[in-house]
Write a structure and sequence with these properties.
eight-stranded mixed sheet; globular; Rossmann fold
Length: about 325
């Protein structure tokens, strides 16, 4: 069986996240695209070899030949169109962050659970072998008792008119890169954090360009996340897990195919392990196809998505800001 996927929006991320990986997954076909502007969708389809162009999102969802949709729309539209896709009988691969806020995430989760559709949040790093290896090292006891888990993602987004800076589209640094850092801390800790404090720097009212949050887990472990799209450190992506007997450092956990590395210091020795150069998106698409076609389990389900949005909302509140709203 072939899984036929339609794309909601001619998004810049779609070629890397879906179209190119699909060429390497025989059971997947990117079959259709829709955008608000049909001319834009037609140009996108011609460039990427997509056979069908629909007049709008509703038309794509009504297409009975489409099994699933990829939702890379702006943050504030994720929830609305994911619900619409589920109600149209489609499986959904939804870009992160899952929704605008946790309340909306719970609404989407309820609709998903009332259906038999697969709904996956696209935290692609979670499907890469380096992430599995990091979890394995943490669980092995090599680091001793885990005491602190930290992740950071800082990127330069200097264009002030980028949609990721727009409050009406649920933008901000925590929504874009901070959701990765929070997800990584939750993944490596294997538990849900409490946000105990946060500091923020704003680009404009309610729009965070830099935010740091301190975390605490129920067993006494501590954590920290730092997210920025505009800061004095233009590019830095990493994580650190500190235990009573050692430390694990992770270089580029979000996209380990690009010079990702695990560095372990424990027992008086040091070693490093290079990450596979296979794209995270390829592993994610294989997992999505496996979940839809064969019922295989996957980690970034709707319960995980709700928990991550709860952590995002808590970071904003701790910093004195409001959680984002749907568009």
């Amino acid at each position: 069986m072939t899984l036929r996927i339609g794309i909601l929006g001619a998004a810049r991320i779609a070629p890397a996240a879906l179209i190119r990986p699909a060429r390497r997954v025989a059971e997947v076909e990117v079959a259709a695209v829709a955008a608000r502007d049909r001319a834009k969708a037609s140009a996108f389809a011609a460039k990427h070899g997509i056979a069908q162009v629909h007049d709008g999102y509703e038309d794509l969802l009504a297409d009975p030949t489409i099994d699933a949709v990829y939702n890379p729309l702006p943050n504030g539209l994720h929830g609305r169109w994911t619900i619409a896709a589920i109600e149209a009988g489609k499986h959904v691969l939804c870009e992160k962050p899952f929704t605008a806020n946790a309340t909306e995430a719970r609404q989407v989760a309820a609709v998903a659970k009332a259906s038999d559709r697969v709904v996956m949040e696209a935290f692609h790093y979670r499907y890469h072998p380096m992430t599995a290896r990091a979890i394995e090292i943490i669980a092995s006891g090599e680091l001793g008792e885990i005491r602190h888990v930290e992740a950071w993602m800082l990127i330069p987004l200097v264009r002030r008119n980028d949609i990721r800076w727009r409050l009406d589209l649920a933008g901000g640094s925590v929504m874009d890169v901070g959701c990765y850092a929070l997800h990584q801390v939750r993944t490596y800790a294997g538990a849900e954090p409490e946000v105990v404090g946060a500091s923020v720097r704003l680009l404009r009212p309610q729009i965070d360009r830099w935010l740091r949050a301190d975390l605490r887990f129920g067993d006494g472990r501590t954590g920290r996340v730092t997210a920025a799209m505009l800061s004095h450190r233009p590019l830095s992506l990493g994580a650190r897990i500190t235990g009573s007997a050692g430390e694990l450092r992770i270089r580029n956990p979000a996209a380990p195919q690009f010079l990702g590395r695990l560095s372990v210091r424990a027992g008086g020795a040091k070693r490093s392990e290079r990450a596979s150069r296979e794209p995270t998106y390829l592993h994610q698409l294989r997992a999505f196809a496996g979940a839809v076609l064969r019922g295989e389990p996957f980690p970034t389900d709707v319960d995980d998505a709700v928990a991550n949005m709860e952590a995002i909302d808590a970071c904003y509140r701790a910093a004195g800001l409001e959680p984002r709203s749907p568009s």
